[in-house]
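Problem statement: downstream parser choked on a complex file, so we are re-checking the raw output for the pyridoxal-5'-phosphate run. The parser issue turned out to be on our end (a line-ending mismatch), but while we're here, posting the original submission so the record is complete.
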Amino acid sequence: MTANLSKEELELRCKQFDENYKYVLSRIEAAAQKAGKSASDIQLLAATKTVPVEVINHAIGRGITLIGENRVQELCQKYDDLDKSATRHHIGRLQTNKIKQVVGKVQMVQSVDSLKLASELSKRSLDMNLTTDILVEINIGNEVSKSGIPADETEEFLHQIATFEGIKVKGLMCIPPICENDKEIRGFFDKMYQKFIDISAKKIDNISMDFLSMGMSGDFEQAIQSGANIIRLGSVLFGAREYK
Ligand SMILES: *Cc1c(COP(=O)(O)O)cnc(C)c1O
């Protein structure tokens, strides 16, 4: 897929990325330090929806090692031209009828929120003789409009999918509600971290709690404070988008 942007516009987008990236890295560094961690403990996932593949490849050339798309169609359009040296995650809502197109193209699906989805991912991955890593998405704010497993059903859900072959649970992710202030957002992130720790301690067979994916452009520093080790950043790296 080539973008409909002129050479000059692409160059400008790349230049803007370079400036944003430098600033973001310094913010991650500072937040990690404040949390008593090293920046290297935190994986930066570049959320690349709407970003032209030329700009994504530029970002990979500058050091981005992990990218996430949230529309299967968009991933497929960009896929052939994408620099494959970065790890690819699916981060958005995933319909079961799109699974065929995504398995094999991404190493991880971050947004598993139903038994059906887990089961279909398992089947497809087995068919293709590969393992797809997954994170379980938690609806930490119990919002009706949002996908995700209710927080208090997490453990039961994990037990249900633990034996599925072809997938491997690696942790949890969430998109918290829109919050008014720092304290409120930290409340949701802390609750996620507690869940993450509680489940780690239970040592469920075939389930590992390696990754806690939370924090976006507007709240990644708070997420780091609460214990996130994957943050997913889009607009703060690539500029504002027309759609979410
Ligand atoms: C778009 C998106 C992000 C990044 O959003 P920004 O606010 O632009 O940083 C993170 N996670 C998911 C699931 C997304 O869809």
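For whoever reads this later: DSSP finds nine helices and nine strands in the chain.
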